[in-house]
């Protein structure tokens, strides 16, 4: 009988690797993508107007940094995201907590939430303009619609997965239903709720760009639209890369914060 080989830990199902190895692999992937991009641009196969070189994009971004435009656009966009995200999270947390453990609230809100969640967010753009105009509130409303309803269902699911034994233990100690909900269920579910917050913050970047592409006079999405009018693909690529970088940074910050806050869940 042939001896069965043990696969490398890098490729084993549910295997583990060190943080240093993980980081090295991730960086290598980014470098590989950059090299392939540079090679295609340098070969001349694709015209620069369609695929500018990494150097040209970096130079264009450097100009935006020098004149202060990039930081202004980032500041405006980040404030819009934070405003809409905080409102969505503040409303979704208590409501999702109730929906996850009390059947009355589940029956009351889940069907209508599911109904709204499947409506395309882009279809609400004309309505949000009619409702609140094209000012800052319109962007916040659009991001809220795209984020709140899906986040609400995710939090409900996080809370619903909390073991029933935790609730029964609270009752055994004579705790009220409200106290059990806030002191036991919420504490047990909050690590996974935080992951839902992290994912929802990522969606906010998508809906932000949608709002800024159509009705804004500032921000990252607006600058992309403006660059498109003048066929400034170097600036378009640059701002897309900035959006990706900002999204990655916020995601990693949320991950780190979760590890620091929820040591009891490890």
TrEMBL record:
Record field: transmembrane: 21-40, 74-95, 115-134, 140-159, 205-224, 236-254
Specify the superkingdom. Bacteria
Give the record's keywords alphabetically.
Cell membrane, Membrane, Transmembrane, Transmembrane helix, Transport
Question: Which ranges carry the ABC transmembrane type-1 domain?
Answer: 74-258
Membrane topology recorded in Swiss-Prot or TrEMBL: Multi-pass membrane protein
**InterPro entries, alphabetized:** MetI-like, MetI-like_sf
Which Pfam families does the entry link to? BPD_transp_1 (PF00528)
Question: Subcellular localization, per the record?
Answer: Cell membrane
Q: Spell out the SUPFAM superfamilies in the cross-references.
A: MetI-like
Family statement drawn from the similarity comment of this UniProt entry: Belongs to the binding-protein-dependent transport system permease family.
Q: What is this protein called?
A: ABC transporter permease
What organism is listed for this UniProt entry?
A: Leifsonia kafniensis
């Amino acid at each position: 009988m042939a001896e069965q080989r043990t696969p490398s830990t890098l490729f084993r199902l549910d295997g583990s690797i060190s943080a240093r190895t993980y980081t090295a692999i991730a960086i290598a992937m980014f470098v590989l993508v950059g090299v392939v991009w540079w090679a295609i641009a340098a070969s001349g196969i694709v015209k620069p107007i369609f695929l500018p070189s990494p150097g040209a994009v970096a130079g264009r971004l450097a100009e935006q940094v020098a004149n202060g435009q990039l930081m202004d656009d980032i500041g405006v966009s980040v404030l819009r995201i934070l405003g809409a995200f905080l409102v969505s999270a503040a409303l979704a947390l208590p409501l999702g907590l109730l929906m996850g453990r009390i059947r009355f609230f589940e029956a009351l809100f889940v069907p209508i939430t599911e109904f709204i969640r499947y409506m395309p967010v882009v279809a609400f753009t004309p309505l949000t303009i009619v409702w609140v105009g094209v000012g800052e509130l319109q962007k916040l409303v659009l991001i809220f619609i795209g984020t709140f309803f899906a986040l609400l269902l995710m939090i409900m699911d996080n809370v619903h997965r909390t073991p029933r034994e935790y609730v029964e233990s609270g009752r055994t100690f004579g705790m009220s239903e409200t106290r059990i909900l806030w002191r036991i269920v919420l504490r047990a579910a909050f690590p996974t709720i935080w992951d839902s917050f992290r994912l929802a913050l990522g969606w906010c970047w998508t809906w932000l760009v949608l709002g800024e592409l159509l009705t804004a006079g500032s921000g990252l999405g607006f600058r992309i639209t403006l660059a498109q009018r003048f066929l400034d693909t170097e600036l378009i690529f640059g701002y897309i890369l900035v959006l990706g970088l900002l999204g990655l940074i916020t995601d990693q910050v949320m991950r780190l914060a979760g590890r620091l806050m929820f040591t009891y869940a490890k």
